[in-house]
Design a protein that fits this description.
Elements (H helix, E strand, L loop, with lengths): L30 H5 L4 E5 L25 H14 L3 E5 L9 H10 L3 E6 L6 H10 L3 E5 L4 H8 L4 H14 L4 E7 L7 H10 L4 E6 L5 H4 L10 H17 L3 E4 L10 H5 L16 E4 L4 E3 L6 H4 L2 E2 L5 H7 L1 H4 L19 H4 L4 H8 L9 H9 L2 E9 L10 E8 L2 H13 L5
Parallel strand pairs: 1-2, 1-8, 2-3, 3-4, 4-5, 5-6, 6-7
Antiparallel strand pairs: 8-9, 9-10, 11-12
Length: 429
């Protein structure tokens, strides 16, 4: 008698640790600290979630034990407005699982800031969408990461794909503009173009893409991650999507960890002020807020290394201006880079790109293997870069393991195909 295959359990949601209180300040605010201001804030209203995503960096599921009260949350809105924030994106977990989330959205608008939301959409109803509109929600981005079976498997809940598209329609019916954000990983790479056609048909104004990053649950399943050399496939694929997007009036926003500086850079990021990717904006133009009042320069960064302090100890302005964890990109120079990034032609402009991506791989920023320019340079040498886990993640929210990277020779048949793909895809330029 043979046993049936064991059903894989859904990821377990750990209870987050309490807020990081009473951290020391770095000293008085400097001119550079006053010059930079967070125009964009991403606010985790609660870590509670109604999905069980296998690639969730925060391991969301259970609320934090010490999340901000309603009064504290509304006070935070006022502090963000006073600091100069222009747009606030509310996230989770799932933002709508917090009882007072509509009141928070309303206060954000009353203080002159634009409020947007990112959601998995599972619990979105027509009534919730109408309440969002009445509160002043300006735009919603729904997360969809592959075609139906792939998305449902990644999100850990059967039916989540259909729920996401239903959420898009509920928000549109309520009069809220909609967008979609998608992660590109090993399980979804070959589905992204087909998914994008579905996204366009759903009536979105924008589509944001980013790479799945080795944090949280994604660190537990490295087969969800792309290998760095697959940027050779990702970037021309996004260029093909860009042509389709332009035909339908849809904007494509490559995330900060998608790139960098290959032949499609101007095509994909020409709308940016410089016409290309710049260095990491964490702690300069971007602000991340955890549900317990912990403050980071970017919402995605690991909490253990990048929380500067807590709102229950200091004002938002003090945390922004006087904590070392939020100053790190203000002080970064080329001398802080290492590995291939240190001697790269674009080093001073890029400064290793996304700090989140490199830190959760190697335990420090400054060397980012997910780089199109880097993959092309190695291809010319007949090499490709590969990653593998050395140390597993401990299983806490916003945690990560440790990876090692090495160069290897392309297998002859694959090398020929890779070079041919690069040449054939050049007509998208």
């Amino acid at each position: 008698m043979t046993s049936s295959p064991r059903t894989r359990r859904l990821p377990v949601a750990p209870l987050a640790k309490p807020a990081r209180r009473h951290l020391p300040l770095a000293g008085p605010a400097r001119e550079v600290d006053r010059r930079w201001r967070p125009i964009y804030a991403v606010w985790e209203l609660t870590l509670k979630c109604d999905l069980a995503c296998r690639h969730c960096g925060s391991r969301a599921g259970k609320a934090r034990p010490d999340e901000l009260t309603s009064a504290e949350a509304l006070e935070l809105v006022d502090q963000m407005a006073d600091l100069g924030v222009k747009e606030v994106t509310v996230i989770g977990g799932e933002a709508y699982l917090r009882d007072d989330w509509v009141d928070i959205v309303r206060r954000i608008g009353e203080r002159g800031m634009q409020c947007t939301m990112t959601t998995g959409g599972r619990g979105v109803t027509a009534e919730l969408a109408r309440a969002s509109k009445e509160a002043g929600l300006r735009s919603v981005s729904v997360s969809i990461d592959g075609l139906r079976d792939t998305h449902d498997a990644l999100r850990g809940v059967k039916g989540s794909y259909d729920a996401a598209f239903a959420a898009l329609q509920h928000f549109r019916a309520a009069g809220i503009p909609v967008a979609v954000n998608s992660q590109i990983g090993a399980k979804s790479l070959r589905e992204i173009e087909a998914l994008f056609r579905e996204v366009v048909a759903a009536g979105v104004h924008s589509w944001q893409v980013q790479l799945t990053v080795a944090m949280g649950r994604a660190a537990d399943e490295p087969d969800l991650l792309l290998q760095p050399y697959q940027m050779l496939e990702v970037m021309p694929m996004l260029a093909r999507c860009k042509v389709h997007a332009d035909e339908h009036g849809v904007r494509i926003w490559p995330g900060n960890n998608v790139g960098y500086f290959g032949p499609y850079e101007a095509m994909l990021r020409g709308q940016l002020p410089q016409g290309h990717m710049a260095s990491c904006g964490a702690g300069r133009t971007t602000l991340g807020i955890e549900a317990n009042g912990d403050i980071k320069g970017c919402p995605s960064l690991p909490s253990s290394d990048y929380v500067g302090g807590n709102l229950r100890d200091h004002s938002l302005q003090t945390l922004w201006e006087q904590t070392q964890a939020l100053r790190f990109t203000r002080d970064r120079t080329v001398n802080d880079l290492w590995g291939d990034c240190r001697d790269c032609y674009y080093a001073d402009v890029c400064r290793a790109g996304c700090s989140w991506t490199s830190h959760v791989l190697f335990g420090r920023p400054g060397n980012n293997p997910y780089c199109h320019h880097r993959a092309l340079e190695k291809l010319q040498q007949g090499k490709r870069e590969r990653l593998a886990v050395e140390t597993p993640a401990p299983g806490e929210p916003f945690d990560h393991g440790r990876f090692r990277a090495w160069d290897e020779d392309w297998p002859a048949a694959e090398l020929e195909r890779a070079r041919r793909v690069v040449i054939e895809d050049a007509h998208w330029l």
